[in-house]
Amino acid sequence: MAVTGIDRVVYGVDDVEKARAFWTDFGLTPVEDGDALRLVTVEGAEIEIRSDDDPSLPAGLAEGNTAREFIWGAESQSDIDAIRAELEKDCEVRVDNDGTIHTLDALGYGIGFRVTQRKEVPVTPTGYNAPGQAARVNERGKVYERAKPHRMSHIVLLAPDLDRELDFYVERLGYKVTDYYPGRGYFLRCGGSNEHHNLFLLHGGDNIGFHHIAFELENIHEVFGGGLHMTDKGWETHLGPGRHPLSSCYFWYFKNPCGGAAEYDSDSDYITDEWTPAEWPSTPESFAEWAYAEGAERYTGIQTGKA
Amino acid sequence: MPYVGIDAVTYGTSDVQKGAQAFEDFGLKKIKSGENEAVLETQDGSRVIIRKTGDKSLPKAIQRGSTVREITWGVSSKADLTRIKRELSKDREVTEDKDGTIHSTDNNGLGIAFRKSQRRKVKPRSATPINSPEAIVRYDDRATYYDKANPLTLGHAVFTVPSYTETQDFYVNRLGFFVTDYYKGRGVFLRCKTPGGHHNLFFLEDENGQTAINHVAFGVANTHELFAGGISFTSKGWKTAVGPGRHIVSSCYFWYFKNPCGGNIEYFVDEDFCTENWKPKHWNPAPDMFAEWALGDGLSKFAGQPPTRTKQDMKKKQKAK
Known about the structure:
CATH class of chain B: Alpha Beta
Strand content of chain A: 25-35%
CATH architecture of chain B: Roll
Order of helices and strands of chain A: EHEEEEHEEEEHEEEEHEEEEHE
Number of domains of chain B: 1
Strand order of the largest sheet of chain A: 17-10-11-12-9-13-16-15-14-18
CATH superfamily of chain B: 2,3-Dihydroxybiphenyl 1,2-Dioxygenase, domain 1
Number of helices of chain A: 5
CATH class of the largest domain in chain A: Alpha Beta
Radius of gyration of chain B: 21 Å
Radius of gyration of chain A: 20 Å
Number of strands of chain B: 20
Largest sheet of chain B: 10 strands, mixed
Structural class of chain B: alpha+beta
Oligomer: heterodimer
């Protein structure tokens, strides 16, 4: 049952054109496919935008525009068959013509599984220099005009009944706990994934609904370059730039007109089965080493030129 | 190759103790601290020396008040010192200490000295492991978090001068420095060795013809240390001048602070590294060339509400108070 990561997230929105503008500025590439708008990452993971009254969509658990379905990718058809057999024990499972299976998770979030359509795309390692070490010789550091998200790294769901949701993903679908806030939040990676987390289940009191989605970039330079571009285009920062102690990522969150937030991140921990999950206290220090609340801006301060 | 780098920067200031405290909070190791002189060093042994403004042993000041009085360049061998002494003696006074250190002035009247370098090999010797998708170098290991910075080296000094071309002429033609980049019609970035870091000196032409210290910069290991170092330094009450941010020229991440000894002090990391094949560029001196981005007033530790705390928790906490 080796699920490897997120393949597609489907949003239901009241303004498809605004959604297109947001994700295009965010750095995804739009692809028209019949009645749906899709926008893809470098690896081929997709954001799908549908009108919020589209009858094919599962119910949204948050008010207004929100993510309605999360399609997970697995390695092979036999994985999909095994997941289907497990889910059919107590869930209603619908199968598409293309073989994607759809159901609802333990709390009613729309989910699906398909043979992954993401392709590994190699990344040129970033050369970082420091005193006494030259990894980048005769080459200026890369400055990004905008981001081009490499992969869809994780989603965050509010889980009022945390134990039930945890049991569903860990016991039934083979997701693994990487780190956790006892009783408050669990960072899960898919059984076939080495990312720090693909799914974060967050206990937010009685609240339920989609919280945010994150995309992994090549390096810190791209986090800043991408965030500056989003800010130039008028999109509002939710929080950032900043740095998380959990996952070690640099981050920058933007408010998303499709619902929740959309996050850039970079320098994520890489997890194998040798990793020991750690318990973290629910403190500000665990959430962020530092964070800028209002975003960074392009520099226009000191005039270095003669008038 | 004669030059190793800046071995020491000597300040003349009104309050030696305050200066020493600033550099200690900045992350330098205190070697000596008295009322009239303090000495602090980076990990590779490059030093900051702080003396009283009126100290007779100091070279003449380039400006009033607290400022840099002398830059000491470390060289590889005694033969280098002999050659530099011979060159400078052609048209200016050169004195020699008992230990062989030679002292003179540059074309702007700034004190310059040369000695056999006392710097040690810089640490760390392995690169910081930073992950990218499909380019993994850090397995099952969280990234490094710093409580404060501990600068590896003293990297460069920056001055405003009446003429950058005359200053370039002095350092390149008389002392053998290399041009790395230009601000068109405005300034020049020089490095003391090739291969070497992007600049050890930057001279910016001042419209009023003043010579003055702008800043002295210290190299740290990675962006993690730069951000954490700045947070720690400012939490001790020292003020941000500008930063954090990122320069276009040199590619460095930076964070500048006000220095009680004069000018600013800077943390930097990820500087371009230049060999003889580097091509100098004439940059347009516009603001967007100074920095890709910069925060004006620094950063502080995150003290907001983490998403793992609910509003109910916060209410409980308020009641408990």
